[in-house]
Amino acid sequence: MRSPSALLPNFRTSLQSFAASPSTFLVLHTLPTSTPPSSSSPWIKTVHVLDSSFNPPTRAHLRIALSALQSTKNASKPQRLLLLLATQNADKAPKPAAFEQRLAMMTLLAQDILDQYHASAKSQGSTADSMNEDSLAVDIGVTKHPYFHDKAVSIEDSKYYAEPSSGEQPQQVHLLGFDSLIRLLDTKYYPPTYTLDPLSALFDKHRIRVTRRIEDGDKYGTAEEQDRIWEALARGERESVGGQREWAERIEMVEGEGDAVSSTKVREGVGKGDWALVERLVGKGVREHVQREGLYIGDDKGA
After folding, report:
1. DSSP of 238-284, one letter per residue?
2. What pTM does this model have?
3. Which terminal Cβ of the chain has fewer Cβ within 10 Å, N or C?
4. pLDDT digit string (tens) for 107-144?
5. What does the alpha-carbon distance between residue 264 and residue 112 come to, in Å, rounded to a whole number?
């Protein structure tokens, strides 16, 4: 894999071209580099989508991705993961790390995902096909849309993952933390009607996998308390604002693992110069890149 710092000029140029183009979704990099979707045989039937600000990527992102991929490791190969960065955010301004820096760190996360995915397959005595490097590819992409339903449509419209001969599209499985599920089902994000009707574009075809949040001080409550938002949808309690009870069948709630990790904690660790803490939260490669590039120094906030 090329050094993430060496990729910065290419990412910067690609971002400028993307901003000036009418496109709303673009894949900028893939690991392994020899695996465009059109080369996959058999065709990709599912694309896992991990959408975040990656400011910076953390071990929580790694765990969410691996958990989803390993839960389907006996499904048809190959598997595909999209790490997606929105150049517009519904809640936050893009600071302090520039987008090209985040993309560079996303390549490090992608390599960690690939390494641990194949190491796990090997340790569990999986077949040669499962351990082949082409059994999983990780794309690094950008979108101009801040909302999940628009992102899903944009990925479809790009036809990047479409089956070459038939044009059939794979199902997207969006990987969310519990805090993102709260925002997804909050009507304030859907003007001018302020209903959940726009989410039909997501739930009619695709699925979401929600990792319950583990936070110090029980910020989000117990697992049972977190499940209530899903249960209310299943009981039809959101129908008055456009939420369909059938959507609950397309939501999978899974347990979080490990200690609480957040990008905010990473930035705070950098601000304090606690590099041992930072490496526990992000991993060696991202820690080295943050330190080498001087990211987050004197600023512990950002999107």
Report:
1. TGGGT--GGGGGGEEEE---SS---HHHHHHHHHHT-HHHHHHHH-H
2. 0.92
3. N
4. 999 999 999 999 988 887 665 454 566 689 999 999 99
5. 21
Specify whether the CB–CB gap between 13 and 39 falls below 8 A.
no
Q: How confident is the model at residue 23 (pLDDT cuts 50, 70, 90)?
A: very high
- The residues, any chain, with a CB within 8 Å of residue 238's CB and separated by 6 or more, are 185, 196, 232, 245
Instruction: With a cut of 80, say whether residue 61 has pLDDT above it.
Output: yes
Rounded-to-integer distance, Cα 153 and Cα 202, Å: 8
Instruction: State the chain's maximal CA–CA distance in angstroms.
Output: 54
Amino acid letter for position 275: W
Question: Six-digit token pair at 270?
Answer: 């950098």
